């Protein structure tokens, strides 16, 4: 299991992934254990500075409470460090708090020994045991913290070197592949460029490459099919030319003397129409929009008749013919 985690510690992302994968109670237990170890040194200080008549409990019970606090604090935090398997968590939440608690134990023991002249204790063991324990745990936690810090710093430096020392592109060190239209070599993108700028340069390079190649002429397009209606004149490029008399104008109709053309000229709206220049889809969309705007509810049935409905009255037909050119 340890070998699996050591293989994962290759980048800074692996360190943070290991730490974030741990449950929340790991950090809580480690913090409470460090406080419990600091409380054990405080209990030991009360043991060798207080007289038997000044404390409500016995000196033996107070010594037992202090010893249990130290043992439980150091034991639980060591178990948390073993089961966490996270180097960054061990450094942040285990070694640094226990180093602080151990140094606090050394400070409490030394200060109480310096400030008091007489100690109401039968033996100096009550002083030497917490002092030796605090000194040894302080040294051990300091050494382990330094080792863990060196490992973390080494991983960070290697990750930083991998990110910075990227192999630069050289023309002779990579195999060149041309695009689909030419054999021009496309150089790779620079890693420092933003994504939008890289895409813009790539598209510009492709456009310039396409423009540099010879574009096919219009004469080649006429080798397939060409339909010429009677009366149409073709120019030099094969496009039909309209004469001056046959040029379409807005609002104009074909010259015809039939009665239907005469009726349509009288009844139609004089506003210029541009529907002849639109494709059928746009004309149909305009008709639907005009019908939806000008349509009003009927008084006899309560529902409006849309274009194409089965029931149409003469009045609705007259309105529809006039709304067509609205």
UniProtKB/TrEMBL annotation:
Q: Where is the composition biased (Polar residues)?
A: 298-326
Q: How far does the signal peptide extend, from start to end residue?
A: none
State the UniProt keywords alphabetically. Membrane, Transmembrane, Transmembrane helix
Q: Does the keyword Flavoprotein apply?
A: no
Give the protein name, as stated in the record: Rhinocladiella mackenziei CBS 650.93 unplaced genomic scaffold supercont1.2, whole genome shotgun sequence
The segments labelled Disordered in the record are 210-259, 271-326
Quote the biased-composition stretches of kind Basic and acidic residues, using this chain's numbering.
Answer: 271-290
Report whether RNA-binding shows up as a keyword of the record. no
Q: Which chain regions cross the lipid bilayer?
A: 29-49, 61-83, 95-115, 127-149
Which species is this UniProt entry from? Rhinocladiella mackenziei CBS 650.93
Q: Any coiled-coil ranges, and where? A: none
